[in-house]
Backbone:
């Protein structure tokens, strides 16, 4: 009988059951019984499927690389679209540029700060979960090392963010009337 098409659609060729699936259908008394070579089924299964682990790892790396390329292309297109002056060659293009671009830059910087903060929270949670079983002392130096570049980035970019917000919504350099945040 021929296999259904979805069994051949995996990166490993024919889909094979996992060790757990095999253990679930095999009579429990056979799980610890040795074969003629003195090997238990679990060890035999692991040895027979070593090549699948290597193939799976290779496939996952290739897939991750492809996803990174696609996400980089999407980010590039989105970045270009964000800074393209909308509206073509109208007389108010300069005014649109002077109002729209700073607002978009503020949103972009705020989003970047937020994403970096959430990334650090995720890093901390992962670090805690990974090292909470006996290597707690490593967590402090790693956290400090990870926080240094993030903190420097925040300290160096915050003045830009503050200046853009104050010049867009504040009195500006010519002491115009203050534009309110909630228009």
Residues:
């Amino acid at each position: 009988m021929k296999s259904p098409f979805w069994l051949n659609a995996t990166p490993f060729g024919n889909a094979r059951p996992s060790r757990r699936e095999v253990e679930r259908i095999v009579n429990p008394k056979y799980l610890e019984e040795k074969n003629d070579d003195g090997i238990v089924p679990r060890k035999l299964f692991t040895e027979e499927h070593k090549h699948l682990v290597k193939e799976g790892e290779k496939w996952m790396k290739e897939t991750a690389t492809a996803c990174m390329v696609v996400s980089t292309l999407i980010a590039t297109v989105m970045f270009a679209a964000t800074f393209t002056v909308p509206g073509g060659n109208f007389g108010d293009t300069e005014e649109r540029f002077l109002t729209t671009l700073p607002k978009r830059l503020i949103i972009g910087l705020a989003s970047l700060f937020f994403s970096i903060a959430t990334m650090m929270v995720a890093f901390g949670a992962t670090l805690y979960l990974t090292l909470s079983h006996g290597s707690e002392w490593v967590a402090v130096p790693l956290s400090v090392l990870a926080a240094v570049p993030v903190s420097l980035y925040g300290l160096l970019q915050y003045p830009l963010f503050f200046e853009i917000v104050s010049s867009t919504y504040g009195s500006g350099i010519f002491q115009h009337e203050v534009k309110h945040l909630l228009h």
